[in-house]
Amino acid sequence: MSVTIRRQERQIKHVNVDMxxxxxxxxxxxxxxxxSGCAASGQELAAFNDLTAIGGVVTKxxxxxxxxxxxxxxxxxxxxxxxxxxxxxxxxIDIFLNRDLPWLAEHEVTAVVSIAGQSVExxxxxxxxxxxxxxxxxxxxxxxxxxxxRGQVFACDKSAAASxxxxxxxAAPASxxxxxxxxxxxxxxxxxxxxxxDSGATGLSxxxxxxGMVIDTTTMRPLLAGVTGGLSGPAIRPLALRCVWQVHQAMxxxxxxxxxxxxxxxxxxxxxxxxxxxVQIGTVLFNDPGAPQRISRELSEALAERGMDSVQQAxxxxxxxxxxxxxxxxxxxGDTREDELYExxxxxxxx
Length: 351
Ligand code: SIN
Hints:
By secondary structure, this protein is an alpha/beta fold. It is about 30% helix and about 15% strand. The protein has helices spanning about 95-105, 120-130, 160-170, 190-200, 235-250, 265-275, 290-305, 335-350, and strands spanning about 20-25, 25-30, 30-35, 55-60, 75-80, 80-85, 110-115, 135-140, 180, 205, 210, 215, 220, 230, 255-260, 280. Strands 3-4-7-8-9-10-15-16 form an eight-stranded parallel beta barrel, surrounded by seven helices. Helix 5 (about 235-250) packs parallel to helix 6 and helix 6 crosses helix 7. The termini are far apart. The structure holds succinic acid (SIN). Succinic acid (SIN) binds near residues 86, 88, 141, 208 and 209. The site of succinic acid has 12 residues, from loops.
């Protein structure tokens, strides 16, 4: 694909970029979504954003039963990021379906429901409860790092990940797209990604947080009550981008959500160029709750500045081969001098 990059045209007066993107059988008007866990079920963010103008809201991962989560402290600041050790606090799926999902539907917000089970059977029950409900997509959180039993991080094992996705596929509403949310804490993310796709996922959300910790040097003990937590924010952006790049390279037709430390339109553009069809915005919401609409606007301006009139044109564009520029070599000085001597000798002969 040939793209003209017009770097000089910085002063965009009116941006007319088609921001729609395809996620399975759905066409969504905008590629910027809120990430699970950072926007609850969307209500609080409505004061700062027109939630119908962004791609949609990915709700906090919901479990079968109410859960209080881990003990406090469960958040810590880190360089360019933060750690959370929430432990999937939530009201349970029934309250969510009666209270939160209807609010999103009434306000015409695209709802991506994130589900998290403690067993394959629980994932299946959660997916089944979405039948007939106004959810647009399911995000299957198989990668929460804050579970007591590391065996429950299904995304760290190919066959465990596959079993969950197969069960969700069987139980979920037939046409509802299913996105598996993967962990970066694996050696080969492409093999986990392909196990999920072979098991019936529509697409993938890349990535969840990566396991980290902080030690408080005053108390000389771990700062988080849960000892470890999930690291998010700009600190993990290069890691997330690498995962999107690798998975898109291996499976270019699979729709991907890019997630990890996105704060600006240019950050979002990096993920789209790496192969994401849409992005999710998480940690930035804690200090800039209006970020989703701002990032969407900045992304559309960045696309226009680069001569593109749709976001779909940019998906995976970073993978095109580099343009090879062959410099024109100047004439070697010796040749020119010889030509001149030859021409003057010919002229002498003719005289
Ligand atoms: C949590 O609630 O502990 C975070 C969920 C997640 O990272 O998946």
